[in-house]
Amino acid sequence: MESKTLFNEETEPPGSLTGAIGLENHPQKSFSRFNPLYNHSTRTPHADRPVILGRPVRMASPFKDSPKSRDFRKRFFPEITYAVWHDWRWQLRNRIGDAHTLARIIRLSENERHAMIHHAKHLPVAITPYYASLLDENDVFQPLRRTVVPVNDECIRTHGEADDPLGEEHDSPTPGIVHRYPDRVLFLVTGFCSTYCRYCTRSRMVGGRGKHRFDIDQWEKGIAYIASNPNVRDVLLSGGDPLTLADEKLAWLLARLRKIHHVEIIRIGTKVPVVMPQRITPGLVHTLRRYHPLLMSIHVTHPDELTPEMSQACIRLADAGIPLGSQTVLLAGINDNIETMKRLVRGLLRIRVKPYYLYQCDPIPGSSHFRTPVAKGLEIIRGLHGHTTGYAVPTYAIDAPGGGGKIPLLPEYVVGRDGGDLLLNNYQGKSYRYPDCNC
Ligand code: SF4
Fold first, then answer.
1. Is the CB of 31 under 6 A from ligand 1?
2. Fold for domain 177-409?
3. What local confidence, expressed as pLDDT, does residue 439 receive?
4. Where are the domains of the chain?
5. pTM score of the predicted model
């Protein structure tokens, strides 16, 4: 079922009643009765029909479960129906964020438990029930588990780490806007994510941290800045995760940006299709496709995230004509080997997502256990080039500390010159010559 436009998005601001249904504004406890993992003793007669602001929530459209998440739902949320499980608002309301609740799902190690209780204030813990269904109950080294469950290493600060390693605040002419490159801006529209990644570059400002407010005043200032800079032809919406905003808020923002003639393309950076694929409803897709050309960069970390649910979400977006690219952070012990990365990039292409960037992990405080040597990234790229289609090979880049921007890195394929010939090594390490006629 397509969503109806509930109001005039060009005139009504997102702080209005209709715009206010974005669940980021509602505390989790208001829905705790729908989460069997929390203490509750009563059920309403219609426990599978949650109500927000006095109105029944429209149920999600059919979305196929994977056997893994179905078994998980039956085991840990036995009272929750298929329809409620697939309602993204239910997923948001019931995010797991404390050690007691998480310990009922996975066997927390002492290290994890201690970190959750004592250090999570540095970056909150939040895991959607869907993403929790992908975590290994016993293996503390499981890649997906390591990306969302904190450990004490997050408290170790090492040389070169900084709260704002990319110097974004320095390039911010108005709160929420980062203007670093000549023709494009980063527009940070929310500090909220459905699931928090432990290596988040913007851990200084997501999850209610930092000085940013992300309210209508800040949005208006950001829009005014973009409108007054005719060289800005490309706007990247990020945060936090823009797809946690309600459809109406997103539509309002996109409509305002589309009215600026020099804005040619709009991009959205998101992890939602990975951690809460239920959010990719027909209504959202209908909203997004009205603002083409619109592109999306999806933050994917590991091939185990490429579930049937995530695939359906990506295919819905691709069918709406949205070009999809992936952004992956290279993480020690998680995806830092050629075989894992090969499985990831090939799997992404199968669901119509072009592997776009592989980022060296940014040196945020407490990230040393996640960072790999740059040589590891180069080894992975060498293991992909020529061994799989070029469509599947992302650009490996370091976002230069201090605000230098993205710097692409390539293994050495040019090994020298011999007179007018360029000496090259191919993907198998064999040597070749190219007559470089301009020398
Ligand atoms: S989804 Fe993005 S913004 Fe949110 S915690 Fe993860 S890396 Fe940070």
1. no
2. TIM Barrel (3.20.20)
3. 56
4. 19-150, 177-409, 410-439
5. 0.87
